[in-house]
Amino acid sequence: MKYSIEDLMPIVMARLIRDNEKVFVGISSPLALIAALLAKKLIRPSITLISVTGAIDPDPEIPPKTTSDNILCFSSIATYHFAEAFDLCVRGELDVVFLRGAQIDKFGNVNISVIGSYDKPKVRLPGGATLAMFMSNAKRIIYWTTRHDKRNFVDKVDFITGTGNVEYVVTPLCIFKMDDGRLKVWRLMPNVDVDEIIENTGFKVEFINREVIEEPNETELRVLREIDPHGVRRIEFK
Amino acid sequence: MSSKVCSIEEAADLISNGMVIALSGEVLHRIPMDFVRELIRQGKRQLTVVKTVSGLDVDMLAGSGCLSNAIFGAVTLEPAYGLARNFRRAVEKCRVNAIEHTCYTVIMSLRAAAYGIPFIPIGRINSDITKIIDVREVIDPYSREKVQVVRALKPEYAIIHAHIADNRGNAVIEGIPPYYEKLISEASSNVIITTEKLVDKIGDQFKVTIPYFRVNVVVKSPFGAHPASMHPLYQVDEEHLKLYIEHSRSDESFNEYLRKYVFCGRLEYYKRVGLLEKLIC
């Protein structure tokens, strides 16, 4: 079955979730929402999905375009509040948080606050929402970005919005894994050349191995399209 | 039992220049936009807005010159609609001071105010944000270990958009957990309720989210979150939102938006967005 990078990314992200984990999906996270819904439905039914809207295990007919849309609560099996989810995380009970930023360096420091100086920024970015607390307290951070280039993968971030507990970084080119305090390439996306990764990364690229990720199977693609018939997963690529 | 019902003009008139206000909802959902538009019409200045994740509300206040400080976890319209352009421009041109928290520290600071205590220990945060918001470290007197603390944050007014309120001020927020609305109602010195539906009496005391004695005034505000959503009553008005975003590309075009949709007056706004008939029904 044919597939695109918009299909591959959420499938790959879903595979990184483990059985019985409590998984948090925040605002501005369409790909993470689709990945978590896919994991819950197909490969990891034992997980608990906690949405920033308060929805526990939402199962929407059509996922909303904004992941802060509390319409998710109407298809959930219980409701919580994001402030309670923060407390859960501080107590050490939150397993996985999906996060994304504008810049990341090889140590896993993330910036989504400003480009340039904080007081007189060249670009004022949205801000981290709760990224700083999650990175300090969640067991595992799965970071994703739809852009893999030297502006996003930098030698040094302009501002440390958050740092800590990054386990994987999923990009359209590869998956980095934290190893010995450094992000190193762990899997290549299909049909991606090693040089392409090196050319588009602002820090020196190290490799754990050069294995290629398993291509999506028919079931993954079918369920993905059922879950997301209108293509919410494509929003971040526009 | 005196009625607390007043007009939106009277309610907005309670907000003085330079005040610190907290607004209900998140991003594009359950936000008091009708009230925000009235603040703009009254030409408020130097406001500080407190919010976890802001969207349209803070963007609009930033674009109309009402805002001096934003205390926030994030300000965004989400990837589906992009950056909050008025806010971004206002910060980059140093017209608005961006005080970036995390949503968690906004909650903890408000909790301290709601609990009536001056500061509160927080879960660890490793971030440059700790310098921006003055997170400090103290010694836990019990374990002798270091713990981070944040100061209480007590807004002068909370403005909360509710589904139903009665004329004494009892307010009901339906469906979705109203934890944040409840929190800002307890943390703030004063509370303004804007409501989709105004009734004489809430029949069911167990439904009341915010009891009357915490509330100063109540304003009838049907479609008060428009163009944002108020589930289950209405969803985001995507057509109008796109028009707003298009206008938010520059100061000039945003001024045109304000002229056409805000300074035209409240009824005229609802007429121009095609909701006047529903409003009268």
Notes on the protein architecture:
- The complex is a heterodimer of chains A (238) and B (281).
- Chain A has 238 residues and is an alpha/beta fold.
- Chain A has helices at 5-15, 30-43, 82-90, 131-137, 194-199, 218-227; strands at residues 22-25, 48-51, 55-56, 78-79, 96-99, 103-104, 110-111, 114-116, 121-124, 140-144, 166-170, 174-179, 182-188.
- Chain A has a single domain (5-237), classed as Glutaconate Coenzyme A-transferase.
- Chain A is built from six helices and 13 strands.
- In chain A, strand 6 and strand 7 (110-111) form a beta hairpin.
- Chain A is globular.
- The model of chain A has no long low-confidence stretch (mean pLDDT 97).
- By secondary structure, chain B is of the alpha/beta class.
- Helix content of chain B is 32%, strand content 22%.
- In chain B, a hairpin with a 6-residue loop joins strand 8 (136-139) and strand 9 (146-151).
- Chains A and B meet through helix 3, strand 9 and helix 4 of A and strand 5, helix 4, helix 5 and helix 7 of B.
What is the β-strand count of chain A?
Answer: 13
The strand line-up of the biggest sheet of chain A is 2-1-5-10-11-12-13
- Percentage of residues assigned to helices of chain A: 10-25%
State the CATH class of the largest domain in chain B.
Answer: Alpha Beta
| Main sheet summary of chain B | 8 strands, mixed
In terms of DSSP E residues, the strand content of chain B is: 15-25%
Largest interface: A-B, 51 and 52 residues
Gist?
Chain A is 24% helix and 21% strand. Chain A is of the alpha/beta class.
